[in-house]
UniProtKB/TrEMBL annotation:
Membrane-spanning residues: 12-31, 37-57, 78-97, 109-130, 167-187, 225-241, 247-266, 273-292, 312-330, 351-369
Protein name in UniProt: O-antigen acetylase
Presence of the UniProt keyword Transmembrane in the record: yes
Top-level taxon in the UniProt lineage: Bacteria
PANTHER family: ACETYLTRANSFERASE, ACYL_TRANSF_3 DOMAIN-CONTAINING PROTEIN
Domain SGNH: 396-632
MF GO annotations: acyltransferase activity, transferring groups other than amino-acyl groups
Bias (Basic and acidic residues): 655-664
Every Acyltransferase domain range: 11-330
Region described as Disordered: 644-664
UniProt entry keywords in alphabetical sequence: Membrane, Transmembrane, Transmembrane helix
Coiled coil regions, renumbered to chain: none
Alphabetical GO biological process terms: lipopolysaccharide biosynthetic process
Length: 664
């Protein structure tokens, strides 16, 4: 028998909101220790599913449910604060953004207005990528997911309820299971789609709906141990999960289950409820929506202004500022607009009038706001220099060996083999010898190793096979044309030395390591020499912790000197240092192009020349930079002077390669 539910205020749910928003802010700020802070959004999804379902079920039982009334309440809750934050972003975007960034920003503004920003960001970026940190409205993807949920679920719940509680429960369980299965599949097959789009998130919202349905039928339970277990599961996930955790997926049942345990069992006087009902948690929980809205724009605009990565102190100050702004917008925007009756109540006409003004500004992003500004021409010219480098042609990003535009002669003397770092090595080789006879064998993100491919979370599962096939094509070319060929082997090797990364070695997945990289570089070198070719290893440009290319452009835009973007060699990404040290183990046996030494005389690494960027991001050369460095250091001569292996060397290399292959 139904006990009914009128949704009473639960202080512990506000406290749970605080547990959700604090880690999100800390994660986006880059604070150490909050590797799973992105899970805060998933906590919000479960809470939202619970509250929305409880409200709708309560109205359905009292036979007063109105879809128009429901959407009015959602509009009062969401639109005013969102409108304020987006409006505040526009002048900052005009001041701090470069022309291309500004265009992308106004596209996101339109997407926010239409509640499809999750779809836009799915097509544009990885949530965990460096570029995402510069998007002020990236976090609105989760609002879009919720709004899309609001469109289909309340009407569906209304239809299901007409067939009774059991039918409703069965349908919600089915939605939960189907969505969970989709997320598990997509976490491997399509990670970005999985993260941003509604079908992979419905199960989290349904988890909250199941809690509401259960309580609606049986009333509330109190179990201190289960409530405390739920809190422990959430906290453990926040600190143990990281951006390498496939998510959302079945592993998300741990934090989502933790939230469900709190919603079901953490009632008054239980330990979990007492913790979550502490006044600081309640205060942050009450302002959590506004805090969520404010933090990402503050962080993004700071990163847009700063030439280098902001300090922890600066990000801490902005975190506090986000809470202060959240209190302001909660007190003077959220609360007045939520009141439907009485003194200070705001009418729906005022809500939609105020929001309509902002919507007009948002949609104007397709017109005047996206127009050209004074000084844009110079900045656009600089930005042209930091576009991705594809080597000989944009068509050489993948399967380059099959394309005539990816070679400069019918009988090349140089094969450039590798990933995007191989592609940007091409203009360095051609910098002083534009007529060099060269062929490009590049497949982006795919290191040039015999029998080894990395696991790449940003790619579909089939990508590993595509990488292996691309390397097999390069190996086949070396077998057929190896005599006298110079083989430039270039990659940053990040996937091969990064802690926790996985690589597939001859079909078997295993943990990556520096020693494994050395072993398979040795195997690859032996393979190249066994076929009469000579390998040349490349130490990539030092990888920094900020976008060095954008830094130079920002310096010009804000009238700061370009050399302010330079850095010390000891400040580079430690993965670059580790990969460099592995390659140096071959010194004396193999010719090495040392871009680190060239870029960093006296320990200071240059990021510009003549006011133009040498980098295009935090790790790649710009085309301009590659050509300039190539001319400075005579990279072509270094490559061509590498001695071809003698016949005895070929025989020994063939023997070594065969031994290594049998051992693997």
């Amino acid at each position: 028998m139904s006990k009914g539910v009128s949704l009473k205020y639960r202080a512990e749910v506000d406290g749970l909101r605080a547990v959700a928003v604090i880690p999100v802010i800390a994660f986006h700020a880059g604070f150490p220790g909050f590797s799973g802070g992105f899970l805060g959004v998933d906590i919000f999804f479960v809470i939202s599913g619970y509250l929305i379902s409880s409200i709708v079920l309560g109205d359905l039982e009292k036979e007063r449910f109105s879809i128009i009334d429901f959407y009015e309440r959602r509009a009062r809750r969401i639109l005013p604060a969102l409108a304020l934050v987006v409006a505040a972003c526009i002048p900052l975007a005009e001041w701090l953004m470069l022309p291309g960034q500004r265009t992308d920003f106004y596209e996101s503004v339109v997407a926010v207005a239409l509640f499809v920003s999750n779809i836009l960001f799915w097509t544009e970026t990885s949530y965990f990528g460096a570029a995402s940190e510069l998007k002020p409205l990236l976090h609105t993807w989760s609002l879009a997911v919720e709004e899309q949920f609001y469109l289909f679920f309340p009407p569906l719940l209304w239809l299901l309820w007409r067939h009774g509680w059991k039918a409703t429960l069965a349908a919600v369980v089915a939605l939960f299971m189907l969505s969970l299965a989709v997320s598990q599949w997509a976490s491997v097959a399509a990670p970005s789609l999985n993260f941003f789009l509604l079908p992979s998130r419905v199960w989290e919202l349904m988890a909250g709906a199941l809690c509401a349905l259960t309580q609606h039928r049986y009333g509330s339970w109190r179990n201190g141990a289960l409530g405390l277990l739920g809190l422990m599961l959430i906290v453990a996930s926040l600190f143990l999960f990281d951006d390498s955790t496939p998510f959302p997926s079945a592993i998300g049942l741990i934090p989502v289950g933790g939230v469900a345990l709190i919603l079901l069992f953490a009632r008054e006087e239980t330990a979990a409820a007492r913790i979550l009902s502490l006044k600081p948690f309640i205060w942050i929980g009450l302002i959590s929506y506004s805090a969520y809205l404010w933090h990402q724009p503050l962080f993004a605009f700071m990163r847009l202004y700063a030439l280098k990565e902001p300090t922890m102190l600066q990000m801490g100050g902005l975190s506090i500022l986000s809470l202060l702004l959240a209190w302001f917008s909660y007190r003077f925007v959220e609360q007045p607009f939520r009141q439907r009756r009485g003194e200070g109540a705001v009418s729906m006409r005022m809500i939609f009038s105020a929001s309509g003004v902002l919507l007009a500004l948002m949609l104007a992003g397709g017109g005047a706001l996206r127009g050209e500004r004074s000084g844009d021409a110079q900045l656009l010219a600089l930005q042209e220099l930091i576009k991705p480098s594809y080597g000989l042609s944009t068509e050489c990003r993948e399967n380059a060996l099959d394309k005539p535009v990816c070679r400069t002669a019918e009988q090349p003397k140089i094969l450039v083999w590798g990933d995007s770092h191989a592609a940007h090595s091409v203009p360095a080789i051609l910098g002083d010898e534009p007529d060099a006879r060269l062929i490009q064998a590049t497949y982006y993100s795919c290191p040039p190793l015999v029998g080894v491919v990395p696991m790449n979370r940003d790619k579909p599962a089939a990508w590993a096979d595509e990488c292996a096939a691309a390397n097999a094509d390069a190996e086949d070319y070396i077998r057929r044309h190896g005599a006298g060929l110079k083989v430039v082997i270039a990659s940053p090797w990040r996937w091969n030395v990064e802690a926790g990364a996985r690589v597939r070695v001859d079909g078997t997945w295993q943990d990556s390591s520096a020693d494994l990289l050395e072993r398979h570089l040795r195997r690859t070198i032996a393979f190249v020499r066994a076929n009469g070719a000579e390998p040349i290893l490349v130490i990539s440009p030092p990888r920094v912790t900020y976008d060095a290319g954008q830094c130079v452009v920002k310096a010009r835009a804000t009238h700061r000197p370009a050399h302010a973007c330079d850095f010390r060699i000891e400040d580079v990404d430690p993965r670059w240092t580790l990969a460099r040290d592995v390659i140096e183990r071959f010194s004396g046996d193999v010719a090495i192009v040392r871009f680190g030494e060239i870029m960093c005389p006296n320990g200071t690494c240059r990021t510009s020349k003549n006011g133009k960027p040498l980098y295009r991001d935090l790790t790649h050369f710009s085309d301009y930079g590659a050509a300039e460095i190539g001319r400075e250091a005579d990279i072509y001569d270094l490559v061509m002077s590498a001695p071809s292996p003698a016949e005895a060397t070929q025989t020994a290399a063939r023997s070594d390669f065969e031994k290594d292959t049998r051992r693997e």
